[in-house]
Amino acid sequence: MRAKTLIVLAAATAVLGGAAIYVNAGKDAAPVDRFANELVFPQLAPRAAAIAAVRIERDGETFALARAGDGWIMPGRDGYPVDGDLARRFLLELGALRVLESRTANPALHAELDLDGAAKDQKATRVAVLDAQGAVLADLLVGRSRMGRQGTAGDGTFVRRNGENQVFLARGRFAPERDAAKWLDRRVANVERERIARIELLAVDGERLSAAKAGPGDNDVQLADVPDDRRIKSAFDVNLLASALEGLDLDDARKAEGLDFDAARERAEYRTFDGLVVRVDFVQERDLRWARLNVSFEAPAEPVDPAAHPNARLRTPEDAAKQAEEIAARVRGWAYRFPDFKIEQMTRRVADLVEAKE
Predict the structure, then answer these.
(1) What's this model's pTM, rounded to 2 decimal places?
(2) DSSP 3-state percent helix, strand, coil across the chain (nearest 5)
(3) Which label site among 72, 156, 282, 287 has the fewest CB atoms less than 10 Å from its CB?
């Protein structure tokens, strides 16, 4: 009887001890974050079809994207098309933004998280999403990012809804692109170097540089009219002349109207073995060099069979003509700024490629 009583008392003590631990743990535990895992803008996804514009502001500079039919344009770039995939991905990420945990609601601490504002000399990036009537569907200030301690799962971005003091650490690394030009549909043309047959570069002072390949499948570019007392500095640099139109992406774009391309004295012309003709005219406006493309198709005098030259990446006449129409439609009426390395390939001088023989 005595042993049985001791066993019951021991069990009761264990239960009471566990209860005490539970009560103390509950008393000392951090309060539940009522915002955790909530969407920052729960109303945005259900109203996605109503989104008509996005406005992005940083350091007092603002640019906007506007929906145009099934795509997007940038009004500040004369309505140039925006990269549709980039715009869609941005809106999906914004709509899916969830609170990892709530942080300070003290305005005096906002600047430490780059959330003081987006006006001049402030560091936040402000993102506003509007409908066709200009009503705001979402308005967010985006500040610093935080890298997770255990891989990307703990990554976060400090944000606060514009007009509210509460700061949230949102899940993931949400970083709206702040360079307006990088939102544009950047690919202008892609003409593979293997297809290039002839190149003509005309400098402002009238100097002409001519180069050509011996035939389809020959990837070596031969510089024409090299004086007897000169030699090629680098065959690699000469071959790069054929790469100018390959992966040709813009740095910026505007309407060609207002730029005097009719008086352009600097140009580059490229002809492919399969009939594509691309002429690039250059004009200077202040310290910026702008380019305009003219694209056409001229059937080769001697038709080339793509199957006979598998390494030349040639197209059939029908496909080459179709590509010419597609590029011409894309570039018609526009002027472009290209990356420096592309401009360098298009504006080479003879002296850049040859040197005196020893």
Answers:
(1) 0.84
(2) 30, 35, 35
(3) 287
